Amino acid sequence: GAVPSRPAATANVRTAVVVLGYHPCGHDWERVVWGDARAGLLGRVPQGVLVAASMRAELLVLGDGRVLKRTSVPKSAFGEKDVLQAHDGLARPDPVAMLTLRLAELGGFGGALARLPEERLRHDLLPRCIRAHGALNTRDEIARALELCARGGFGRLVLVSSPTHAPRCARDASALLAARPELRDVGLLVFVCASHTSFTKDEGADAVAILEPPHRSSRGDADPRDVAPGAGEVPETAGTDAELALHRLVARSLRLEPRARRELCARLAQLLERLETEVSAIIY
Predict the structure, then answer these.
(1) Which of 49, 54, 59, 106 has a Cα-to-Cα distance from 191 of 20 to 30 A?
(2) What would you measure as the largest C-alpha separation in the chain, in angstroms?
(3) Which spans does this entry mark as compositional bias, Basic and acidic residues (predicted)?
(4) What are the chain's domains?
């Protein structure tokens, strides 16, 4: 039968798509941000373009990554122009310039992007594309996106990032919304969409471990063989003292200085190896 039209309540909802920036000195910057056209893998920017075009977004925001000193930025050129643009005396990659210069290459990814006419993107999407700068970290970047939606009257926000970063975006957005009830009251909906390329070629979303606060009374009796490798679900003892809950310990470890954190990880690896050996001996 015919596809039903969108309900009137959502037909006029304004949509903003925000592509989170990636540190210019981060590993495999171009693959993370742009992707791998030969393999058909969309980086953050092409994925953001696809989402914006598909949802008819009124605004596409491209983050340029964290502030860097001019001397620390690698020389990256796309086409004949350098995409590193100065702002406030600092050099940053300009993802809007990159998209403008490489717009014709989007069709090379194939799939849905290949079906988007270049002229439509150039005349319809690019004028609604802006560059975001100044964010200090992921949480700050998402907070700025929420503020932008509040000021601009947007009812729907889509955050686009890498598979290994998207879970953090969802967590930070949820925490920020919880602290801003006025945004929930106006009905702002926040979605997270993952691109195809992560920080490393060999690890995707499965490499992200999700540590939830304990909430299942039977979890402490879980058989280690029932926990799928890479599933991110870690058994915790029911009724464990709050300070010993695994998610709290991990959060504390992230606040350590790098040297102390490396020492903790080395000791933890040794302890885990011993405990895993003991568990294997008991099970098998």
Answers:
(1) 106
(2) 66
(3) 213-226
(4) 11-205 (3.40.50), 208-283 (no CATH)
